[in-house]
Amino acid sequence: MHDDEHDDNSAPYSQDLEGERQRLAGIAFRMLGLSFEANLAVAEAFERWLNLTSEERADIGSPQEWLTEAVSKVCLERLSVKPSRRAGYRGNWLPEPVPFPPLEELSSGQNPKDRYTLDESVNMLLMVVLDSLTAGERVAFILHDVFGVGYKEIADVVGRSPVETRRLAKSARLHIQDRRKNEVSAERQRQMVLNLLKACEARDEHAVGCMLHPLVTLLVDSGGKGRAVAGPVEGAEAASRKLIQMLIEAPVMTVSARSVNGGSGLVFRHAERVIGVLSVNVEADKIINIWIVTNPDKLEQWNTS
What we know:
The structure is a single chain. Among the domains are: 1-87; 186-303, Nuclear Transport Factor 2, Chain: A, CATH 3.10.450.50. The protein is built from 14 helices and 6 strands. It has helices spanning 4-17, 21-32, 35-50, 54-58, 63-79, 82-85, 115-120, 124-131, 135-146, 151-158, 162-180, 186-201, 205-211, 236-248, and strands spanning 212-221, 233-234, 254-260, 263-270, 273-283, 286-293. It is elongated and about 70 Å long. It starts with a helix and ends in a 12-residue tail after the last strand.
């Protein structure tokens, strides 16, 4: 319970800061990989703000920076307990696919040339790589490399010195650069996705297999609710067979090319409802990763517009 003075002073602050929710949700989504968890993290950060006394809030120079630090701390706490965070999750886990680049997250004070950074920061490969990093690496990279927060401020979030925080961001950056060093252009990836769809529609396993890297991995995240595939499917022959089966043999399903996480992908629909989303990673002109999300909980954004 808040006293009367606390209540009277909290309302104007929350009103003034309401416009920060979308920016904070963008930060939290990149850290957690799920829009539902991101929104919960933002709500908790605002709750922490409202739990401050009016004197404590008056001592804060920038409420926006305070909220950025608060939501980052909430995310760090959740990332630090990743095993228990995913306890009970059935099958493979993938970040949530999003149907559009985050255009709305460009703040009025941000240089338009930095838009590429924001779009790239939800790239599915990047989200997958981020999920393999330590909690500190992920938080330091996203805050510094994506949102331009200084190392001194990030150090307060991760509980390290600025020098150690810089090392965390650098370690994350090196992991990401290593995974992305052989990426093809956006146009080439788009063409590969269109060719993949055409070959699948023709049920041509050989043509599909020729587009896949010999070490390709196909991963399906159903959450135990959508169409399930146990474990990763590895190798061009097995992956091409499974892909055709999933894309073509499902009853009354349409497949179309669509932007996924700012890149090229495929969307599966049944009775106009999105029931699956596919993204790929192309290296050296071969598809080496195929990620398919069929968990309906992770497809809500695709079915609300």
